[in-house]
Amino acid sequence: MIPTRRLASQAGFFRRSAEELGRLSKIALNAEGLHTPTKAYTLLDFEDSSSVEGCKTMADRVVGGFSTASLDYDPGLPSANIPPHARFHGKISTKLPSNFRVDRTGYAAFRNQDRGVWLFGRLYWDLDPYSYLALRIKSDGRRYTVNIQTDSIVDTDIHQHRLYTRHHRVRGTPTAPLRNPSESREHINEMYPHGRPDALSDTPPESTIISSSSSATTSGSTGWETVLLPLTSFVRTNFGYVVEPQTSIMRNRVKSIGIGLTDRIDGPFDLRIHKIWATNGMDEHDAAEDKLICGAHALPVDEGVRTGWAASKLLEKEAEKETGEQQTSQTKKKGLQGLRSEWDE
């Protein structure tokens, strides 16, 4: 691809190209493509105000609704270990407009804008080598969803996962899940014809690293936490409805990542986001930063990341060696006649 004058004149084209070439060169020099990455891959770092400016907000106001959504940069308070971050806030309203064609409102969301182009075409995130999407957030306890959009055949397809959190204020009784009283059984059956997927349920599935807390307050905690969501657990949806057949995320061609609120509960919302990244587990650098920001509830270092999964690789080699020895032993016992009988079976 040869950059034309019009293409080269786009803001940040050469900067994006240099950054991506530098990143890929580093991967090649370190031979990172030959093993599971132990370093995190930062996608959106809201310590930089430009990351906030590079995002767009959406709400039902575009169809005549009354919900509002804003994404603002908050410089934080370093002396109190509150990092610079993005504040996603606004108000959800389920009031219907006079337009008779609109029969459902009450949503707000944000995502990063198109990442643009570089020397070799459109720029995507390649998350193929990673197992988790990590988010460091401070939640108000509402039912947010994490949205991933890829360069799929259907442009409007979005893979979603509920943002389960531990340290937040749960509305209602301490043990009651946050439910939307306006959701009818008919609507739920329409949205989830094959049943509500685990990743979108009101209670976190076992595969989710961070689970919800039954605590009604955040006393004794900073309120910040790091959530790890398995990329294999995201559910394919289209305009909020689960669609079939389910397909895995095209991890090597991720266009955008964002967070939405579609619980349709009237009232204000406030979610703080420090950083979003792809990872295979917490390394020492991430764990140290997590402890500084999240306090006593920080995630520990993943032993697999610390050792480069050396122990598991050793076990795999020993298992392969043992299997090979067993096969050799059986072959010697059977001889050529035994091999011929196996072939004929």
TrEMBL record:
The protein's name in its UniProt record: NADH:ubiquinone oxidoreductase intermediate-associated protein 30 domain-containing protein
Family: Belongs to the CIA30 family.
Signal peptide: none
Example of a GO cellular component annotation carried by this entry: mitochondrion
InterPro entries listed in its UniProt record: Galactose-bd-like_sf, NADH-UbQ_OxRdtase-assoc_prot30, NDUFAF1
Chief localisation class: mitochondrion
Compositionally biased intervals (Basic and acidic residues): 182-199
Segments of this protein annotated with the region Disordered: 171-222, 316-345
Compartments, record wording: Mitochondrion
Alphabetically ordered keywords of this record: Chaperone, Mitochondrion
Ranges of residues in domain NADH:ubiquinone oxidoreductase intermediate-associated protein: 45-169, 220-273
Domain of life from the UniProt record: Eukaryota
MF GO annotations: unfolded protein binding
Organism for this UniProt entry: Penicillium cosmopolitanum
GO biological process, one term: NADH dehydrogenase complex assembly
Low complexity bias spans: 201-222
Alphabetical list of PANTHER family matching this protein: COMPLEX I INTERMEDIATE-ASSOCIATED PROTEIN 30, COMPLEX I INTERMEDIATE-ASSOCIATED PROTEIN 30, MITOCHONDRIAL
